[in-house]
TrEMBL record:
SUPFAM superfamilies: PP2C-like (SSF81606). SMART domains: PP2C_SIG (SM00331). Residues 167-382 form the PPM-type phosphatase domain. Keywords: Hydrolase. This is PP2C family protein-serine/threonine phosphatase. It comes from the Bacteria. InterPro entries: Bact_Sigma-Reg, PPM-type-like_dom_sf, PPM-type_phosphatase-like_dom. It comes from Streptomyces lateritius. Pfam families: SpoIIE. Its EC number is 3.1.3.16. One of its GO terms (molecular function) is protein serine/threonine phosphatase activity. Transmembrane segments: none annotated.
């Protein structure tokens, strides 16, 4: 652990663009590493892109079918042996958000399985520092893109909280397609000591206009949440903000939920098109709410929350209309039967992998023609608190992960 402390100190004092260099030098000096490589998952979650001073000079590695991809998917070290050296591939993950993979090449005489926990600690420290460094450098953001983002997609990815999150009470995963050209779909989450707030959003329109509309709505919801307003008032404030800007000519559909981490009781405001399905044991059912007006359609809309309860072991899946309304070549909508089959077939996957798996199946279901709308899937596994106790912390209303 003394080695880890030294690496952590070096990372904290390093310039944002030099994090990989610092880790490389430390691993070479303390573990005899011959080579160190950091790869981050691209926006489409299909490839792992090398972090390097000149972007795109190293070929990407596919997540499916590679040792690095196995470490990323299983969230466990994957070790390969070749020509007298061991390549150790380790996941770089922060609070459940899967960022990428660090590969460390060690000579045979320096490799030992007992080293893996120590290097995993280094990966965790590196991941934390990358999150901080992204405020000051584009190096890690550039490494994530396998192609150029549209301006609307750039705006949306900067707005998102992350792609997955794990806490003792729940696990979350989310994904959007087309990853490099999304415009109106969005998700957001924030957790405090005793509550999780989750929103699934779909702004009408296409391109920049849809991205601008969604940005306004999401930031209005965050502003209301951080002001300590209850769920209905969060929706009302965002509704007023959108209406004041667009006067009813554009609106935003949103499903807004607030989970009590102690009891599993959930407040919900259904203001538009995003929908929810529940997998309980081996039974899948669509969960419907009283439909209320989308945000910004009319002035001074009053929103009324509904309540339901989640049980330990429940899996909730949320989808935008680009998912459940997508049609097969025969004309059957994906949400009618295929989505339930997909939810059952992916029940053994962790939530971080479920959205991508569902969207890949959706692409095959839809056929060769591209989807005519962006598509969003969010997956939530609920565990709750076994003792239903309160840890005594003050409930915060701002921030996220």
């Amino acid at each position: 652990m003394d080695k880890f402390a030294a690496v952590e100190r070096a990372l904290r004092s390093a310039a944002p663009h030099t994090l990989l260099n610092v880790v490389t030098v430390a691993l070479m000096e303390q573990y005899g590493a011959e080579r160190v490589e950091l790869r981050l998952a691209d926006y489409g979650m299909r490839s792992l892109q090398a972090v390097e001073s000149v972007p795109y000079t190293t070929e990407p590695v596919l997540i499916h079918g590679s040792p690095q991809g196995r470490a990323f998917g299983a969230q466990e070290p994957c070790v390969t042996h070749d020509n007298g050296s061991y390549d150790v591939h380790l996941p770089v993950t922060i609070r459940g958000d899967r960022m990428g993979v660090l590969t460390v090449r060690l000579p045979e005489d320096r490799y030992a399985q007992s080293l893996l926990p120590e290097i995993l600690h280094v990966c965790q420290a590196l991941g934390h520092e990358i999150l901080v460094a992204e405020r000051d450098t584009d190096l890690y953001v550039l490494a994530r893109r396998a192609a150029r983002l549209t301006l609307a997609a750039e705006m949306q990815w900067q707005l998102l909280p992350g792609r997955s999150c794990v806490r003792p009470e729940f696990s979350l995963g989310a994904h959007l397609e087309p990853a490099y050209a999304i415009f109106g779909d969005n998700y957001d989450w924030s957790a405090s000591a005793n509550h999780l707030t989750l929103t699934v959003t779909n702004g009408m329109g296409e391109g920049i206009e849809a991205a601008l509309l969604t940005n306004l709505a999401v930031n209005a919801l965050r502003n209301a949440r951080r002001a300590g307003l209850d769920l209905a008032d969060q929706a009302a404030l965002a509704d007023q903000a959108v209406y004041a800007q667009y006067r009813g000519s554009a609106y935003v559909s949103v499903l807004l939920l607030r989970f009590d981490l102690n009891t599993g009781e959930v407040e919900a405001v259904d203001a538009g098109s995003p929908r929810m399905w529940r997998l309980r044991e081996r039974s899948v059912e669509a969960v419907s709410f009283d439909a209320q007006l989308p945000l910004g359609m009319f002035e001074d809309t009053v929103y009324v929350p509904e309540r339901f309860t989640v049980e330990s072991g429940d899996r909730l899946l949320f989808g935008s209309d680009g998912v459940y309304e997508a049609s097969s070549p025969a004309g059957e909508r994906y949400g009618e039967r295929a989505l339930a089959r997909s939810l059952l077939s992916t029940r053994l996957l962790p939530p971080a992998q479920v959205p991508g798996a569902v969207l890949r199946e959706l692409a095959g279901y839809h056929g060769e023609t591209p989807l005519d709308d962006d598509a969003l899937v969010v997956c939530l596994d609920w565990r709750g608190r076994p003792d239903n106790g309160d840890d005594g912390e003050a409930d915060e209303v701002s921030g996220g992960f």
